[in-house]
Amino acid sequence: MIVVTGAAGFIASCLVSRLNAANFNDIVVVDNFAVEKKLPNLHGKKLREYVDRNEFFDWLDDNHEQVEFIFHLGARTDTTEQDRAVLDLLNLNYSKQMWQACVRYQLPLVYASSAATYGDGTLGYTDTEEALFPLYRPLNPYGDSKNDFDNWALQQEEKPYFWAGLKFFNVYGPNEYHKGRMASVIMHAFNQIQQHGSMVLFKSHNPDYTDGGQMRDFVYVKDVVEVCYFLLHNRTHSGIYNLGSGQARTFLDLALNTFNALGRTADIRFIDTPEDIRDKYQYFTEAAMGKLRSIGYDRPFTSLEDGITDYVQQYLVPGSYY
């Protein structure tokens, strides 16, 4: 059996689809299934069992001998969440409990970290200088919770026999219909263009960047799950890895490609960045991908152009799921 936590969410449900495509059908999905808006992400998938996240560790005590691998992708992913107690409970302490269970039962573990750990990028975006990890200053409590766990994991004397933390950069793609404000800019752009024929982007409040010239490392979710699938089969190099495309692109690039995928003439307008995130806004992110490449991952990453075209035309237009 393969366990996937956060399984009804965006990235994890896409991973379940990828596993099913490879004939892995004994999948135990773990989540808060009371959040009904996420449940369509799992419709039609081949699954062995649903386990509530609050009951999972009792379930694992009883079933660990049948478990082959754990993908721990469940978390509170709202980057605007200010309640540190919630983030400590769901992102930090739950992950510590998962780690300890994997040590106890010697189960391999892949868990979700985040590029939010890098803060404003002053110290760069390299995953090889682990001595810098305690020096990172994330820009929000969500980033703190992910950075706190990365540092805790590195300090542990007892570790799963294989483990990997993945610092996700700006992931976009199918199965994010439920995410609301936290959905990718591509999904917001699609909705605005369909409704109004135009879309808005945030103005730059940094003199080094033009409006729409803010840059992020956008990575297609299908590439993310390919890396997860690679780690399922390559369990020799534990550590923390960046997971982006390795190429920063502008939000203007993203917007123009969304219009192009819809066959529409671009009409882009700019609004002030909301004050609640303005001082915590990342203007540039780009994943250094050499560490992942060094352990044998050699698949090319999808270009922003190809990823947006696939996402818009194959999923958003028909309203379908991956």
Automatic annotation (TrEMBL):
It comes from Hymenobacter aranciens. Belongs to the NAD(P)-dependent epimerase/dehydratase family. HldD subfamily. Pathway: Nucleotide-sugar biosynthesis; ADP-L-glycero-beta-D-manno-heptose biosynthesis; ADP-L-glycero-beta-D-manno-heptose from D-glycero-beta-D-manno-heptose 7-phosphate: step 4/4. Its cofactor is NADP(+). Homopentamer. Transmembrane segments: none annotated. Keywords: Carbohydrate metabolism, Isomerase, NADP. This is ADP-L-glycero-D-manno-heptose-6-epimerase. InterPro entries: Epimerase_deHydtase, Heptose_epim, NAD(P)-bd_dom_sf. It catalyses: ADP-D-glycero-beta-D-manno-heptose = ADP-L-glycero-beta-D-manno-heptose.
